[in-house]
Amino acid sequence: MRFSGKTVVITGAGSGIGEEAAKLFAREGAIVIASDIDEENGKRVAASGAGDIRFKRCDVCDVSEIKALMEFAAAETGGIDVLFNNAGAGGAREKIHEIDAEGWDRTMDLLLRAVAMGIRYAFPHMKGRPGASIVNVSSVAAVGPGYSPTAYAVAKAGVLHLTKMAAADLAEFGIRVNAIQPGFIMTNIFTRNLEVPEETKELAKGALRQMSSHAQPVARSGEPRDIAEACAYLASDAGSFLNGTSLLVDGGLTIGPRYSWDPEEPGVYDPLETLEEEAKQAAI
Ligand SMILES: NC(=O)c1ccc[n+]([C@@H]2O[C@H](COP(=O)([O-])OP(=O)(O)OC[C@H]3O[C@@H](n4cnc5c(N)ncnc54)[C@H](O)[C@@H]3O)[C@@H](O)[C@H]2O)c1
The CATH number of the domain where 34 resides is what? Predict the structure, then answer.
Protein backbone atom coordinates (compact mmCIF):
# COMPACT_ATOMS: atom_id res chain seq x y z
CA MET A 1 0.00 0.00 0.00
CA ARG A 2 2.56 2.53 -1.22
CA PHE A 3 -0.01 5.28 -1.77
CA SER A 4 -2.31 5.10 1.27
CA GLY A 5 -3.80 8.49 1.98
CA LYS A 6 -2.44 9.99 -1.25
CA THR A 7 -4.43 11.69 -3.99
CA VAL A 8 -3.40 10.79 -7.53
CA VAL A 9 -4.73 12.67 -10.56
CA ILE A 10 -4.48 10.86 -13.90
CA THR A 11 -5.35 12.24 -17.33
CA GLY A 12 -6.41 9.86 -20.10
CA ALA A 13 -7.43 7.26 -17.50
CA GLY A 14 -10.17 5.69 -19.61
CA SER A 15 -7.93 3.33 -21.57
CA GLY A 16 -4.50 1.74 -21.91
CA ILE A 17 -1.68 3.09 -19.76
CA GLY A 18 -3.86 5.57 -17.85
CA GLU A 19 -6.45 2.91 -17.03
CA GLU A 20 -3.82 0.50 -15.74
CA ALA A 21 -2.16 3.25 -13.69
CA ALA A 22 -5.51 4.26 -12.14
CA LYS A 23 -6.16 0.68 -11.05
CA LEU A 24 -2.62 0.16 -9.73
CA PHE A 25 -2.58 3.37 -7.66
CA ALA A 26 -6.07 2.59 -6.32
CA ARG A 27 -5.08 -0.95 -5.37
CA GLU A 28 -2.12 0.56 -3.53
CA GLY A 29 -4.37 2.74 -1.36
CA ALA A 30 -4.62 6.02 -3.27
CA ILE A 31 -7.72 8.04 -3.97
CA VAL A 32 -7.50 8.28 -7.75
CA ILE A 33 -9.09 11.11 -9.67
CA ALA A 34 -9.40 9.51 -13.08
CA SER A 35 -10.08 11.92 -15.91
CA ASP A 36 -10.67 11.46 -19.62
CA ILE A 37 -12.47 13.06 -22.52
CA ASP A 38 -14.19 9.67 -22.95
CA GLU A 39 -16.84 9.66 -20.21
CA GLU A 40 -18.10 6.14 -20.85
CA ASN A 41 -14.72 4.51 -20.41
CA GLY A 42 -13.67 6.86 -17.60
CA LYS A 43 -16.77 5.84 -15.64
CA ARG A 44 -16.11 2.18 -16.45
CA VAL A 45 -12.63 2.45 -14.91
CA ALA A 46 -14.04 4.25 -11.84
CA ALA A 47 -16.52 1.39 -11.37
CA SER A 48 -13.91 -1.34 -11.91
CA GLY A 49 -13.70 -2.24 -8.22
CA ALA A 50 -9.94 -1.66 -8.12
CA GLY A 51 -10.32 0.80 -5.21
CA ASP A 52 -11.31 4.43 -4.69
CA ILE A 53 -11.40 5.79 -8.25
CA ARG A 54 -13.49 8.90 -8.94
CA PHE A 55 -14.17 10.04 -12.50
CA LYS A 56 -14.05 13.65 -13.64
CA ARG A 57 -14.39 14.50 -17.32
CA CYS A 58 -11.51 16.56 -18.67
CA ASP A 59 -10.46 17.43 -22.21
CA VAL A 60 -6.80 18.30 -21.74
CA CYS A 61 -6.90 20.50 -24.85
CA ASP A 62 -9.17 22.85 -22.90
CA VAL A 63 -7.14 24.69 -20.27
CA SER A 64 -10.24 25.66 -18.27
CA GLU A 65 -11.11 21.95 -17.97
CA ILE A 66 -7.60 21.16 -16.71
CA LYS A 67 -7.95 23.86 -14.05
CA ALA A 68 -11.39 22.53 -13.10
CA LEU A 69 -9.98 18.99 -12.82
CA MET A 70 -7.31 20.05 -10.35
CA GLU A 71 -9.84 22.09 -8.34
CA PHE A 72 -12.19 19.09 -8.28
CA ALA A 73 -9.40 16.82 -6.96
CA ALA A 74 -8.49 19.31 -4.25
CA ALA A 75 -12.13 19.84 -3.27
CA GLU A 76 -12.73 16.07 -3.05
CA THR A 77 -9.62 15.15 -1.06
CA GLY A 78 -7.85 18.29 0.21
CA GLY A 79 -4.94 18.37 -2.27
CA ILE A 80 -2.94 16.52 -4.91
CA ASP A 81 0.11 14.32 -4.19
CA VAL A 82 0.73 12.78 -7.60
CA LEU A 83 -0.10 14.03 -11.08
CA PHE A 84 0.21 11.60 -14.00
CA ASN A 85 0.11 13.63 -17.23
CA ASN A 86 -0.75 10.75 -19.53
CA ALA A 87 -3.58 11.66 -21.97
CA GLY A 88 -2.57 11.47 -25.59
CA ALA A 89 -3.18 10.28 -29.12
CA GLY A 90 -1.19 10.00 -32.33
CA GLY A 91 -1.85 13.57 -33.50
CA ALA A 92 -1.38 14.85 -37.04
CA ARG A 93 0.16 12.19 -39.28
CA GLU A 94 1.55 14.30 -42.11
CA LYS A 95 5.24 14.75 -42.74
CA ILE A 96 6.72 18.21 -42.20
CA HIS A 97 6.38 19.20 -45.86
CA GLU A 98 2.65 18.40 -45.82
CA ILE A 99 1.42 19.32 -42.34
CA ASP A 100 -0.72 22.41 -41.81
CA ALA A 101 -0.66 24.78 -38.85
CA GLU A 102 -3.97 23.49 -37.52
CA GLY A 103 -2.71 19.89 -37.29
CA TRP A 104 0.55 21.02 -35.77
CA ASP A 105 -1.18 23.18 -33.12
CA ARG A 106 -3.73 20.47 -32.30
CA THR A 107 -0.94 17.96 -31.69
CA MET A 108 1.12 20.36 -29.58
CA ASP A 109 -1.94 21.37 -27.53
CA LEU A 110 -2.77 17.74 -26.75
CA LEU A 111 0.72 16.39 -26.12
CA LEU A 112 2.76 19.34 -24.87
CA ARG A 113 0.64 22.28 -23.76
CA ALA A 114 -1.66 19.96 -21.80
CA VAL A 115 1.32 18.66 -19.82
CA ALA A 116 2.53 22.20 -19.08
CA MET A 117 -0.94 23.35 -18.06
CA GLY A 118 -1.50 20.20 -15.99
CA ILE A 119 1.58 21.08 -13.97
CA ARG A 120 0.60 24.76 -13.86
CA TYR A 121 -2.85 24.12 -12.41
CA ALA A 122 -1.98 21.17 -10.17
CA PHE A 123 0.81 23.19 -8.57
CA PRO A 124 -1.30 25.25 -6.11
CA HIS A 125 -2.78 21.99 -4.79
CA MET A 126 0.55 20.10 -4.63
CA LYS A 127 2.63 22.82 -2.98
CA GLY A 128 3.66 21.86 0.55
CA ARG A 129 2.57 18.21 0.26
CA PRO A 130 5.40 15.90 1.37
CA GLY A 131 6.60 13.62 -1.44
CA ALA A 132 4.67 15.49 -4.12
CA SER A 133 5.54 14.13 -7.54
CA ILE A 134 4.63 14.66 -11.19
CA VAL A 135 5.12 12.05 -13.91
CA ASN A 136 4.79 13.05 -17.59
CA VAL A 137 4.39 10.61 -20.47
CA SER A 138 6.90 11.16 -23.25
CA SER A 139 7.82 8.40 -25.74
CA VAL A 140 10.65 6.58 -27.47
CA ALA A 141 9.65 8.90 -30.33
CA ALA A 142 11.58 11.62 -28.46
CA VAL A 143 14.81 9.71 -29.17
CA GLY A 144 14.71 10.39 -32.93
CA PRO A 145 12.88 9.59 -36.17
CA GLY A 146 11.37 6.21 -36.98
CA TYR A 147 8.88 5.71 -34.16
CA SER A 148 6.01 8.10 -34.87
CA PRO A 149 4.75 10.96 -37.04
CA THR A 150 6.80 14.17 -36.86
CA ALA A 151 4.53 16.41 -34.79
CA TYR A 152 4.05 13.68 -32.17
CA ALA A 153 7.81 13.10 -31.91
CA VAL A 154 8.55 16.80 -31.53
CA ALA A 155 5.89 17.21 -28.84
CA LYS A 156 7.18 14.18 -26.91
CA ALA A 157 10.75 15.53 -27.12
CA GLY A 158 9.34 18.77 -25.74
CA VAL A 159 7.86 16.84 -22.83
CA LEU A 160 11.36 15.69 -21.87
CA HIS A 161 12.69 19.24 -21.80
CA LEU A 162 9.59 20.52 -20.05
CA THR A 163 10.17 17.83 -17.42
CA LYS A 164 13.65 19.18 -16.67
CA MET A 165 12.55 22.82 -16.66
CA ALA A 166 9.60 22.05 -14.39
CA ALA A 167 11.83 20.02 -12.05
CA ALA A 168 14.06 23.07 -11.73
CA ASP A 169 11.17 25.51 -11.28
CA LEU A 170 9.45 23.36 -8.66
CA ALA A 171 12.56 22.25 -6.72
CA GLU A 172 12.08 24.99 -4.15
CA PHE A 173 8.63 23.59 -3.40
CA GLY A 174 9.87 20.01 -2.97
CA ILE A 175 7.91 18.77 -5.99
CA ARG A 176 9.75 16.23 -8.16
CA VAL A 177 9.03 16.03 -11.90
CA ASN A 178 10.02 13.04 -14.03
CA ALA A 179 9.05 11.47 -17.35
CA ILE A 180 8.54 8.02 -18.80
CA GLN A 181 9.37 7.08 -22.39
CA PRO A 182 7.23 4.05 -23.24
CA GLY A 183 8.24 1.84 -26.15
CA PHE A 184 5.71 -0.16 -28.17
CA ILE A 185 2.87 -0.72 -25.68
CA MET A 186 -0.24 -2.68 -26.62
CA THR A 187 -3.08 -0.18 -26.25
CA ASN A 188 -5.85 1.26 -28.40
CA ILE A 189 -3.71 4.23 -29.45
CA PHE A 190 -2.69 2.61 -32.74
CA THR A 191 -6.17 1.75 -33.95
CA ARG A 192 -8.31 4.39 -32.23
CA ASN A 193 -8.37 6.89 -35.11
CA LEU A 194 -8.23 4.49 -38.05
CA GLU A 195 -11.04 5.27 -40.47
CA VAL A 196 -11.95 1.62 -41.10
CA PRO A 197 -14.82 -0.66 -40.02
CA GLU A 198 -14.71 -2.11 -36.50
CA GLU A 199 -13.87 -5.65 -37.78
CA THR A 200 -10.85 -4.27 -39.66
CA LYS A 201 -9.72 -2.56 -36.46
CA GLU A 202 -9.90 -5.88 -34.62
CA LEU A 203 -7.80 -7.50 -37.36
CA ALA A 204 -5.27 -4.68 -37.10
CA LYS A 205 -5.12 -5.14 -33.31
CA GLY A 206 -4.40 -8.85 -33.76
CA ALA A 207 -1.60 -8.11 -36.24
CA LEU A 208 -0.15 -5.49 -33.91
CA ARG A 209 -0.16 -7.90 -30.99
CA GLN A 210 1.76 -10.42 -33.11
CA MET A 211 4.25 -7.79 -34.18
CA SER A 212 4.70 -6.35 -30.69
CA SER A 213 5.98 -9.60 -29.22
CA HIS A 214 9.12 -9.51 -31.36
CA ALA A 215 9.56 -5.81 -32.05
CA GLN A 216 12.28 -5.36 -29.41
CA PRO A 217 14.99 -7.42 -27.69
CA VAL A 218 12.68 -8.41 -24.81
CA ALA A 219 10.67 -11.18 -26.45
CA ARG A 220 7.17 -10.22 -25.38
CA SER A 221 4.80 -7.36 -26.00
CA GLY A 222 4.97 -4.20 -23.92
CA GLU A 223 1.87 -3.92 -21.75
CA PRO A 224 0.17 -0.96 -20.02
CA ARG A 225 1.13 -2.56 -16.70
CA ASP A 226 4.85 -2.05 -17.54
CA ILE A 227 4.33 1.71 -17.73
CA ALA A 228 1.97 1.87 -14.74
CA GLU A 229 4.64 0.16 -12.59
CA ALA A 230 7.29 2.64 -13.77
CA CYS A 231 4.97 5.52 -12.92
CA ALA A 232 4.30 4.11 -9.44
CA TYR A 233 8.04 3.73 -8.86
CA LEU A 234 8.78 7.32 -9.93
CA ALA A 235 5.95 8.66 -7.78
CA SER A 236 6.75 6.55 -4.71
CA ASP A 237 9.24 7.02 -1.86
CA ALA A 238 11.47 4.44 -3.59
CA GLY A 239 11.92 6.93 -6.42
CA SER A 240 12.46 9.95 -4.18
CA PHE A 241 16.00 10.65 -5.50
CA LEU A 242 14.89 10.78 -9.13
CA ASN A 243 14.19 14.26 -10.41
CA GLY A 244 14.13 15.84 -13.86
CA THR A 245 14.91 12.53 -15.49
CA SER A 246 13.20 10.03 -17.75
CA LEU A 247 12.79 6.27 -17.62
CA LEU A 248 12.94 4.47 -20.96
CA VAL A 249 10.56 1.54 -20.61
CA ASP A 250 10.85 -0.03 -24.03
CA GLY A 251 12.15 -3.61 -23.72
CA GLY A 252 15.37 -2.42 -25.36
CA LEU A 253 13.67 -1.08 -28.51
CA THR A 254 16.05 1.88 -28.70
CA ILE A 255 19.34 0.23 -27.75
CA GLY A 256 20.50 0.12 -31.36
CA PRO A 257 19.55 -0.90 -34.89
CA ARG A 258 17.76 -4.21 -35.19
CA TYR A 259 20.81 -6.02 -36.60
CA SER A 260 22.73 -5.16 -33.39
CA TRP A 261 20.55 -7.50 -31.35
CA ASP A 262 18.71 -9.76 -33.83
CA PRO A 263 20.94 -12.47 -35.36
CA GLU A 264 18.32 -13.01 -38.10
CA GLU A 265 18.64 -9.45 -39.34
CA PRO A 266 21.27 -8.63 -41.96
CA GLY A 267 23.45 -5.76 -40.80
CA VAL A 268 26.18 -3.47 -41.96
CA TYR A 269 28.76 -6.21 -41.27
CA ASP A 270 27.29 -8.59 -43.83
CA PRO A 271 28.13 -6.45 -46.88
CA LEU A 272 31.60 -5.88 -45.42
CA GLU A 273 32.20 -9.63 -45.16
CA THR A 274 31.00 -10.06 -48.75
CA LEU A 275 33.32 -7.29 -49.94
CA GLU A 276 36.25 -8.86 -48.08
CA GLU A 277 35.50 -12.22 -49.68
CA GLU A 278 35.24 -10.65 -53.14
CA ALA A 279 38.56 -8.83 -52.62
CA LYS A 280 40.23 -12.10 -51.58
CA GLN A 281 38.82 -13.89 -54.64
CA ALA A 282 40.00 -11.09 -56.93
CA ALA A 283 43.52 -11.37 -55.46
CA ILE A 284 43.80 -15.10 -56.24
N1 LIG B 1 1.01 2.80 -26.53
C2 LIG B 1 2.23 3.14 -26.86
O3 LIG B 1 2.96 2.38 -27.55
C4 LIG B 1 2.80 4.46 -26.39
C5 LIG B 1 4.16 4.70 -26.60
C6 LIG B 1 4.70 5.89 -26.17
C7 LIG B 1 3.91 6.83 -25.54
N8 LIG B 1 2.59 6.60 -25.36
C9 LIG B 1 1.80 7.63 -24.70
O10 LIG B 1 1.11 7.08 -23.62
C11 LIG B 1 -0.03 7.88 -23.32
C12 LIG B 1 -1.25 6.98 -23.14
O13 LIG B 1 -1.54 6.36 -24.38
P14 LIG B 1 -2.12 4.87 -24.52
O15 LIG B 1 -1.16 4.11 -25.33
O16 LIG B 1 -2.55 4.36 -23.18
O17 LIG B 1 -3.36 5.18 -25.47
P18 LIG B 1 -4.93 4.92 -25.33
O19 LIG B 1 -5.51 5.39 -26.61
O20 LIG B 1 -5.21 3.53 -24.90
O21 LIG B 1 -5.35 5.89 -24.14
C22 LIG B 1 -5.28 7.29 -24.26
C23 LIG B 1 -6.42 7.93 -23.47
O24 LIG B 1 -6.28 9.36 -23.58
C25 LIG B 1 -7.59 9.88 -23.78
N26 LIG B 1 -7.52 11.17 -24.47
C27 LIG B 1 -7.23 11.40 -25.78
N28 LIG B 1 -7.36 12.72 -26.03
C29 LIG B 1 -7.72 13.31 -24.88
C30 LIG B 1 -8.01 14.63 -24.49
N31 LIG B 1 -7.99 15.65 -25.38
N32 LIG B 1 -8.33 14.89 -23.20
C33 LIG B 1 -8.37 13.88 -22.31
N34 LIG B 1 -8.15 12.60 -22.60
C35 LIG B 1 -7.82 12.33 -23.87
C36 LIG B 1 -8.31 8.84 -24.62
O37 LIG B 1 -9.72 8.99 -24.54
C38 LIG B 1 -7.80 7.54 -24.00
O39 LIG B 1 -8.64 7.12 -22.94
C40 LIG B 1 -0.15 8.89 -24.46
O41 LIG B 1 0.40 10.13 -24.05
C42 LIG B 1 0.72 8.29 -25.54
O43 LIG B 1 1.23 9.26 -26.42
C44 LIG B 1 2.01 5.43 -25.77
Answer: 3.40.50.720
